[in-house]
Amino acid sequence: MSIDIQGVGKRFGSFVALDDVNLSLPTGQLTALLGPSGGGKSTLLRIIAGLESADEGRVRIEGKDATGLPAQKRGVGFVFQHYAAFTHMSVAKNVAFGLEIRHRPKEEVRERVDELLRLVHLEQFAHRLPSQLSGGQRQRMALARALAVEPTVLLLDEPFGALDAQVRKELRQWLRRLHDEVHVTTVFVTHDQEEALEVADQIVVINEGRVEQIGTPDELYDAPANDFVMRFLGPTTTLAGLVVRPHDIGVVALPVNGAIAGTVRGVHRVGFEVRLTVQTSEAREPAVVTLPRSRWVELGVDVGDPVWLRLPADAARTPADAAHVGGVVGVAH
Amino acid sequence: MVDLAPTPARAARPSPQGGHRRQGRHGIGRIALRAGVIAYVGLLVAWPVALVFWNTFADGLAPVVETFTDPLVLASLRLTAIAAAWSVALNVVFGVAVSLLIVRYEFPGKRLLNAILDLPLSVSPVVVGLSIVLVYETTRGVFGVPLAAAGIQVLFSTPGIILATTFVAMPLVIREIVPVLTEVGTDQEQAARSLGASAPQTFWRITIPAIRWGLTYGVVLCLARSIGEFGAVKIVSGNLIGQTQTATLMVEQMYFDFDQEQAFAIAALLATVSIIAIVVVSVLRSRAERKGTS
Q1: Is residue B126 part of a domain?
Q2: Which phi and psi angles does A306 have, rounded to 5°?
Q3: Which residue among B195, B198, B212 places its CB closest to the CB of A149?
Q4: What is the mean pLDDT of chain B?
C-alpha cells in the first residue's frame, strides 16, 4: 500500500471535517476522492500532504509513518486548484524549483526540466512567465513542477476546478494518459462525478467527513452502497420506493405484468434524449424517465397518455430515503 | 402588444438629444476636472517646490558649492543619512515581521495592534518627540534611568534621533506590504514547502520576491519620510549644531539666521533625493509591468 490512513479525524472549531477515516490506496493507481464541497475530501488530501495536521489517527506513506513529518519531508507532489504558480519565476524556473532547493547539479536540473516540459507540452514556453500562460498551461506547469522532485505520491486538489468546461475535459484525459506513462501513485480531489468516473482506477466517495464507498468506477456505478452514492453519481428518480436512474426505467404503452401504471404529465426534449414526467398511482411525486428520442417516437406517447413503467432486474437501485422522495436529483450536465 | 408598441419610439426620441447633451457635459466636465486637478497640484506642490530650486540657483553655483563644503552642513547631512538608514533598516525588518503576523495569524488583540500601528501616522511628530523624552529622560524616564546608569545616552544624541525617526516612519512599510501579502495568499508558500523548501528558503525565495514591489514602495516612502522628519527629531535631538542637528533642523536654523541661500541649497538637496527615489521606483515598476511580473 502506498498510502495508509488509519482513524484520521479533523475538526475546525465545532465543525467535523473528517471523522475516523480509514483508507488504503495501492501503489501506482490513480484514485479520485469524490464528494460534495465541504465534505472533507480536500482536508484529507491536505493531511496526506502534510499541509494540514490531523487531530487524531495516523498517515503512512510507502510504509513509513508520516503523521508528524512536515510537508517538505514527505516526498509528496502537490498540485493546487489555483495553480500556485511562482509568479516571479519563468516556467522553467518554476519546474526547476524543487531540484534547485536540493542543490542538484546545474546540468542535471536543465536536462530534467527540458524532459518534464516536453512531457507536459510546454517546451516552447520555458522562458515565459506564468502570467503569460492560459489556465490549462499553468496547471500543466504546476504538474511538471510537482513531478520534478520525483514524488512517491502525487496529490491534486481539484486540479481542473478553475478551468472552463472544454479545457477540463481535455486535461482530464491528458492526466489519464500522463498517469499511464509516469505510473506515480496519484490521488485527485474532485466534486465532478463524471471526471472521477472517466479518469480514476478507484474512487473514494467522501461525504460529511466519512467514507461512503470505495471501489472501481464500475463497482460504484453498478452497485452503489447507499442512497447517497447513488444520487451523487448522476441523475436519479424514485420509482416504487426505490432510487433508480431515469434511463434504466423501461416504458411501454401497453399494460405488462409487473409494470407500474402511470400517466404522462410532461414531455421535454433535451438534445438527443427525451425526458418524460410520469405520475404513478402509488407515489405522490412523479417519476422521471429518460429515453432516446427515437424510442420515444416509436412509443408514440404524449401528455395525458397512459404508460407502464418497469425496472430491469439488473438496474442499480437503493432504497429511497424519506427525505429525498421524488423528482430528479442532481441532473448531470 | 398594443401598449408595448410606443415604448421603442418613446425611448428613441430623447436618446439622441440626451446622448449628445450627456456627451457634451462629459467632455466639458472632464476638461474642467483635469484643469482643476492640475491647478491644485501645481499651485500646492509643483510650483512651491520648483521655487526652492529656482532660489537655490538664483545666484549661480558658488553659494551652492560653498554650502556643501561647509563641515557643519556636511555633519548634518551625515546625521540625516545615518538616521534614515537605521530607520529604513529597522522598519523593513520589523515591518515584514509585523505584516506577516497580521496577515497570517489570528490572535486576541489583533485589531488593537492594527490601530496602534497607525498611531505614528495620525499623531503629530511633536507628540512622538515628547513621548520619547518622557520615556528616555535620564532622571525619571522608565528606560532613561537604567540606560543612563549603564552610560548610554539616548536623548540629545544619535540613538534618540534614530528612535524618533524610526517611530514616525513605522507604519509606512507595513501599510504597503499588508495588502500585497493578503492578495498573494499562502498557496505559493505551501507549494514551495511541498517541493522540499525549508521555512527560511520559502521566505527568501517565495515570500520576499512576491512582496518585493510593496516592500520597495514602503522603503522609498520610509526613506523620504525619515529624511524629511523634523518635529519629533527637533524635540529629542536638542539641536546641537555639528552634533545632533539633522539636515531639516539645519534648514530651519539657517532660514531664521538669514542664511537663506544655504537653507535653500540644503532644501533642494533633500527634495532631489525624494524625487530621485520616486523616479527610480516608477521606472522599475513600469519595466516590471512590461515584463508582466508585477
Answers
A1: yes
A2: -80, 140
A3: B195
A4: 86
B98 and B200 co-located in one domain = yes
Q: How far apart are CA A155 and CA A48, in angstroms?
A: 8
- The answer to the question of residue B43 being in a domain is yes
B280 and B140 part of one domain:
yes
Q: Name which of B194, B198, B202, B207 to mutate to probe chain A: the one with the most chain A Cβ atoms within 10 A of its Cβ.
A: B194
- Closest approach of chain A CAs to the CA of B167, in angstroms? 32
Same domain, B182 and B289: yes
Same domain, B223 and B178: yes
B36 in the same domain as B150: no
Task: List chain B residues with pLDDT less than 70.
Answer: 1-26, 290-294
Cell numbers that stand for A43 in this block:
482536508
pTM over 0.90: no
Give the DSSP H/E element, type plus range, for residue A79.
strand A76-79
Residues 6+ apart with CB under 8 A from B198: A72
Contacts A129 to B, Cβ<8 Å: 291-293
pLDDT along chain A (333 residues), means of 10: 91 92 92 92 94 93 91 91 92 95 94 93 94 92 93 93 87 90 92 92 94 94 91 90 91 88 91 91 87 91 91 87 48 38
- Domain containing B41 equals 27-56
Residues A271-292: tens digit of each pLDDT: 889 999 999 887 788 999 999 9
CB contacts of A50 in chain B (<8 Å) are 194
Do B67 and B49 fall within a single domain?
Answer: no
Total structural domains within chain B: 2
Grid coordinates belonging to B3: 401598449
Question: What is the ipTM metric for this complex?
Answer: 0.81
Whole-number pLDDT of residue A66: 92
Residue A159 touches chain B, beta carbons under 8 Å: no
Is B209 among the domain residues? yes
CA distance A96 to A104: 10
CA dist A210 and A14 (Å) reads: 16
Find cell 410606443 and name the residue.
Answer: B6
Q: Which of residues 27-66 of A touch B (CB under 8 A)?
A: 49-51
Assess if residue B260 is contained within a domain.
yes
Q: Do B193 and A72 count as a contact with CB atoms less than 8 A apart?
A: yes
CATH number at residue B254: 1.10.3720.10
A84 CB neighbours in chain B (<8 A) are 187-188, 190-191
